[in-house]
Specification:
Length: 467
């Protein structure tokens, strides 16, 4: 069997895992979900979910990985539960599907860096046209996937850890700089108010569903990305506190992203309900209003930030199938990486074409119960959104549900606790340990099971449970 890599340092592991977590989810979707969910009310629910439900799953994934020193499929086998390796296969499928369309959005972001550096603020108004230009976006996508593969091909410490150690501090500096700038804009405080003063009447079933899904996706849970990263961590490390730092970093960056988005948007009197278009359509207008030179700098930095965040996430998405092929099939890392990246790029082509280029992919499927709110006519879901519904909204919560049930009831809590105590004796018998036990046994399976059921009934069968 090929030698497995390992993280060189605790900081390296934390940065790499935080890099996986911090991504398009934090900077692209988090702010628009806050915008749709009534500002601070969404934020409040989101924070609770991150710490009370997601954190226990996060440390459990890391513990399974570190215990077995295996990829997500091999991990369950090596614990002696062959059948449960289905979780690993589901995770592989999720990783491949998510990366296939995530790379397309990353390509948009990278394309925006190129456009804004040239002062093309009009790109926001032309977003719809830009994303149908499949040759250009495809080329950016190729570059992005290539950069991802290059990093992963260099292995754990020489590739993933090294990239995280450069990209994460840079990302942090950029976001802090942008934050300071945004807060000094006239009218910034209205944005801050919208962001921070909760209107609890806005908390509906839909907001809760969306907040939990968002928290789970944002922490890269449910597909074994953290089992994989955990498998490269040494036994003397404290994974309980590392997990807390990863959660804090992820939540912190999302929080700051909102903190800089709303002042920017409010200061230019733009709406907060731009949905997925908030970043790509609304923001360039805000950069233009700032003025030619500063606007170019701020705009370019913003999309660079988004691209860096995406890159450390695509790296972790690619590492999951890579570690499987390397561990279980003895293929060399380089060969595995480049062939898997090529296959995933190809799987992503329909997503690339489903943003308006090809009609039948753009209006790919009519999901039951999905009608245009105004006209009552059937609404169609694009191929890309459809893959997102399958992977993000269905596979991840199902995977998370199974991981929690497995750890608590099959592998058993004593073993989980034993692994958590490796490198952290103080955890034994502590309140935190008792909470993790309780959450993994009851709260996590219940809540994650509930989102999976809601998704399946709501999206696939058209049975509305939440509104
Ligand atoms: N957490 C990443 C984000 O917020 C996405 C991701 C999900 C990465 C699952 C890896 C695994 O963008």
């Amino acid at each position: 069997m090929a030698a497995r890599g390992a993280f060189n340092s605790r900081l390296g592991f934390i940065l790499a895992a935080a890099g996986s977590a911090v991504g398009l989810g934090n900077i692209w979707s988090f702010p628009f979900k806050v915008g749709e969910g009534g500002g601070a009310a969404f934020l409040f629910v989101y924070l609770i979910f991150c710490f009370l439900i997601c954190y226990p799953v996060l440390v459990t994934e890391i513990a399974i990985g570190r215990k077995t020193q295996r990829n997500p499929v091999g991990a369950f086998k090596s614990l002696g539960f062959r059948r449960w390796s289905i979780i690993g296969y589901l995770g592989l499928a999720s990783g491949v599907l998510i990366l296939s369309f995530y790379n397309v959005v990353a390509a948009w972001s990278f394309g925006y860096v190129v456009e804004l550096i040239q002062g093309n603020f009009g790109i926001g108004k032309n977003f719809g046209t830009f994303i149908t230009d499949w040759v250009t976006v495809g080329l950016y996508g190729c570059i992005f996937m290539g950069a991802t593969a290059l990093i992963v091909s260099r292995g754990i410490s020489g590739g993933i850890e090294r990239a995280a150690k450069i990209l994460m501090p840079t990302l942090f500096l950029i976001i802090l700089g942008l934050l300071i700038y945004a807060l000094t804009l006239p009218g910034a405080m209205d944005g801050v108010k919208f962001y921070l003063v909760p209107d609890f009447s806005k908390i509906t079933g839909d907001v809760i569903y969306s907040a939990l899904g968002q928290a789970f996706f944002s922490l890269s849970l449910g597909m074994g990305a953290l089992i994989t990263y955990g498998s490269y961590v040494s036994k003397d490390q404290n994974i309980v506190s590392a997990g807390a730092m990863i959660t804090l970093a992820d939540v912190g960056i999302a929080f700051i992203a909102g903190f800089l988005m709303f002042p920017l948007v409010f200061s230019q009197n733009l709406g907060t309900d731009g949905g997925p278009g908030l970043i790509f359509e609304t923001l360039p207008g805000a950069f233009e209003a700032i003025g030619p030179v500063v606007g170019v700098v701020i705009g370019t930095l913003f999309f660079l930030l988004l691209s860096f965040a995406a890159l450390t996430s695509t790296v972790s998405l690619l590492e999951v199938p890579t570690s499987y092929v390397v561990d279980e099939h003895g293929v060399s890392r380089k060969k595995a990486v480049w062939s898997i990246a090529t296959v995933i790029f190809i799987i992503g082509i329909p997503s690339l074409l489903s943003a308006g280029t090809v009609e039948w992919l753009t209006n790919f499927i009519h999901l039951p119960g999905n009608f245009n709110a105004e006209t009552g006519e059937p609404a169609f879901t694009s191929f890309m959104d459809f893959v997102g519904i399958i992977a993000n909204d269905t596979f991840l919560p199902v995977g998370g549900f199974l991981i929690a049930v497995f750890a608590a009831w099959v592998w058993r809590k004593e073993n989980l606790n034993e692994e958590l105590a490796q490198g952290d004796e103080a955890i034994r018998g502590s309140l935190l340990q008792k909470y993790i036990d309780f959450a993994i046994s009851y709260i996590c399976p219940l809540m994650l099971g509930a989102i999976a059921v809601v998704t399946i009934l709501d999206r696939f069968l058209g049975i509305k449970l939440i509104g």
